[in-house]
Amino acid sequence: MSCMDKTTDQTNPIDDSKPEDDRPEELMRIEAACRFLEANLDEDPPLDAVARAAHYSPFHFHRLFRGLTGETVRGYARRIRLERSAYRIVHSDDELLNIALDAGYGSHEAFTRAFSKQFGIAPSTYRSEKQDPRPVASTQRLPLSEVRIEKRTPCTLACVRHVGPYSDVGRAWKSLMKWGWAKLVFGKAQTFGLSYDDPDVTDPQHVRYDACMVVKDGTRTKREVLTQPFDGGYFAVTVHEGPYVTLGETYARLFAHIVTHPISGRRWRLGDPPSLEHYLNDPRKTAPEALRTEVMMRVK
Asked: pLDDT below 50 — which residues of the chain?
């Protein structure tokens, strides 16, 4: 069995912390609404459609959403779009106008105002400050293990969502394992983590992470375990060797490698999150320096 976990100060995913399934039903339903928004960001769904995803009437839903998340429905969607834009600004050479249009803004000026309000800095300045050439030099000094391109097929996932610092994701894994233990023992189900946010961009309290298990279509789940499709696609993959606390260094070098080196005979561009992490050994039985983790970044 391989256990998954992701943190900037990582802990054992099977721990003694409170499992996610102890959360109230209302939080589970609001989480379903958040997932619906994230899956339909480009369509800008109306409020009543988002409310239906949470099985609430629009009248009560908006106030409950704001009370439990601290954000309005529109504010939540706007923040996620802007954080996705920030990722593209740093990790792609896309024109700022194209990024603005993809984020739903009709002009560069409108996008700049919204981006500056969110991050306290204009998009052009953000790009020039964040696109530091030093990661390329770091790649040369600290070479990655072999980088390969892997095509992952679409599948269905059973997931437990964690929102908050990566150091607390163990609770999500505890809930997933509690539900899916028989599948791990008898079916050898594949498990991995999905990381949606860059902690250098997103406030730690808003960071999203899914503890996931591949399941058959139509699998029945309960409460905090939700199913969702995984689109698959192409990923640049390398193996991180060592403590989880140094995973960020491998991510930085992999980013730089993708944009500066051909892989499998061609050039690739960074795709949109989430990234995947597949833990190859058990942190409960393995010394930190011997841990091995596959880090997978979507490419196109």
From this structure: 1-18, 132-142
pTM: 0.71
Q: How many C-beta atoms lie closer than 10 Å to residue 244's C-beta?
A: 23
- Per-residue pLDDT reduced to its tens digit, 67-86: 888 889 999 999 999 999 99
Q: Which domains does the chain have, with CATH numbers?
A: 21-130 (1.10.10.60), 148-299 (3.20.80.10)
